[in-house]
């Protein structure tokens, strides 16, 4: 992605002065909290309806198919399909043998992402920076996605806890692929909530979310396809706060509506 162009609306900002007062920041974050609460209520309602519909469909399928009603849970490992390389030369050199082995046995997640209700990749990247999260953020009108880089141990879970703690009122859905098994969990207020079946998540998110979680596509490839992708490492604390200012102050790039620029 090309370097972010200068915002002509920010030319009058004095770098020696605060970007905005504590009162303005409190008011802006209050706006975010209200928008997050409204969008989260709508999202949870949609998910509940989707779960109910899936349960009904499952019951109908069970009555129709008899003994075939019981199917393996989504994400279960098909051990017969695992191809164990004869030597380390067959392993992707960009990953490395130890990382590949850790991902295979589940000590390290293969992929992890935070799915949000924020449309702007830039704003999500700014929130990630303030939460000390390293990620590539992909923009979408259905909700931006942060593709996490720290996949060791409980790194993905820690990221979900951190961002929902730092940004009060924000909730996210954490998707983690460990040992070829997908786990999907909602987080709010720094705490894990209900888990979801992967098909429910994929039915309510952009197609690229499923492709990312299954390793079919990478954030870099999505960027090549023309999607907005912003590296959280592109910002420091000051520039992240500038991004938040543009998304919250009238006349600085747009007003807040579902945490996106109108």
From TrEMBL:
Biased region (Polar residues) positions are 41-59
In residue numbers, the region (Disordered) covers: 1-85
Q: What is this protein called?
A: Uncharacterized protein
């Amino acid at each position: 992605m090309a370097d972010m162009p200068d915002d002509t609306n920010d030319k009058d900002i004095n770098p020696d002065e605060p970007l905005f007062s504590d009162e303005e920041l409190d008011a802006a974050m209050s706006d975010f909290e209200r928008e997050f609460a409204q969008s989260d209520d709508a999202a949870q309602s949609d998910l509940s309806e989707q779960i109910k519909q899936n349960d009904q469909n499952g019951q109908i399928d069970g009555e129709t198919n008899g003994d075939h009603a019981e199917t393996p849970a989504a994400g279960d490992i098909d051990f017969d399909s695992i191809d164990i390389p004869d030597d380390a030369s067959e392993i992707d050199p960009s990953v490395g043998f130890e990382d590949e082995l850790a991902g295979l046995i589940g000590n390290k997640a293969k992929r992890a992402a935070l799915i949000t209700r924020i449309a702007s990749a830039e704003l999500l990247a700014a929130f990630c920076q303030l939460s000390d999260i390293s990620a590539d953020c992909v923009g979408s009108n259905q909700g931006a996605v942060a593709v996490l880089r720290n996949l060791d141990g409980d790194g993905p879970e820690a990221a979900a806890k951190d961002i929902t703690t730092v940004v009060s009122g924000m909730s996210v859905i954490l998707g983690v692929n460990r040992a070829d098994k997908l786990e999907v969990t909602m987080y709010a207020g720094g705490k894990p909530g209900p888990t979801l079946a992967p098909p429910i998540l994929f039915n309510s998110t952009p197609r690229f979310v499923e492709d990312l979680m299954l390793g079919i596509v990478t954030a870099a490839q999505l960027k090549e396809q023309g999607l907005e992708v912003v590296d959280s490492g592109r910002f420091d604390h000051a520039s992240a706060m500038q991004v938040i200012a543009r998304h919250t102050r009238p006349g600085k790039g747009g007003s807040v509506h579902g945490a996106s620029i109108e």
